[in-house]
Amino acid sequence: MKVIYFRIKSAIVGAAVLLGFLACEKDAYLTDEGLHQADVSLNTYDYLAAHPHHMFDSLLMVIDHFGLKDEINNARTFWAPSDYSVSRYYQVKRDSVLNENENASYSFEEFLQELHVDSVRAYINSDGSHWLGTAETSYTYVANPAGSTGFAYHKILQPKGQWTYQDIYLLYFVRVRGEADQVGPDGNVRVDRNDVPDLHILCQTSGIKTASGTTLNVLANTHTFLLDFASLTDTGPFIEDLPDGIRFTYDVSFRPASGYVGTSVVAPATYIAEVFRLQTEDLSTLLGNSIVFYAIEPDGSLNSNSTANAPGHWFNRDGKVVAWGDEARIFSEYNGDTFTFSIGQYPDRLASGDTYTVKQAMVYTNRNNQQIRAEFVFNITIN
């Protein structure tokens, strides 16, 4: 099995935050409003509520729903997901409901009812103040009130940039999956290609000290609230190296139905970004420009014409792209904001025991005019 080393790339905002640490006094930090003091006069809950751009309003709704205000204020450390993160999970849940019934509705209140309080408590640490200043390159494991294990944090040395010759480290919150990844002296990790990698979530701001005694670290907007912590199954994706990229193969199944329903798959954005040598958020912003979405025809040719909701395609029984109509059997549509494929069926046209294989790809043309592809193969069983 091929072993790879990869660097977990940082968001630009994360680099800006840490450059603020380097350039300023150690009790200052950088936010989108400029330079502020790391020690703030508000308790943790009120500090989140007072954000000038309301970046934590959805998170506060979750906290209020479970009555966690006191726990948040009394926490030694809180790893705060932004509204972008909460919204990502809500959209995934909503898409799942609509895949079952396209006429259904799914409110945020219904979303709250389906959450579990102990899952939310995974972001709360009661065992100490954890931030960039206390981080090692190796994992430091942390405890949460739910008793959930497998959470840690560490720092990773970043490549030298033009702005400084000093060593720059970024802070990551870690969800360990299975056996912990091997960590090098600089914090970068070693993973077998088809082993499940640990999840590393960049902290875009670290070390805010609230008046209630909490150390607050704000997670990157690309984090998907709770869903990133879920266990991955052995059914996919199976990951293969290609001469010009990477291939992800999934085995999925759903029942025949009288609606445009099926299932959904969240693409491994971190791996795709690594192969493309981009930041994860670039996968969304460049889609439709230097990243082009295709179907892969049975003869291996690429088809960029969307025949379902763009970017997406209808396929016939042989996996060939067709228009909606008599030949259509399976559709696969991609949501670039949530990295989610919605895979479904033409109503009343499939039967139990049917199998289909459909293929799609993202092709990135970099600044050197090299094309790198990420292929997605869906082996579908109707059960």
TrEMBL record:
PROSITE patterns: PROKAR_LIPOPROTEIN (PS51257)
Pfam annotation, one family: DUF4859
Domain DUF4859: residue ranges: 263-369
InterPro entries: DUF4859
Record's protein name: DUF4859 domain-containing protein
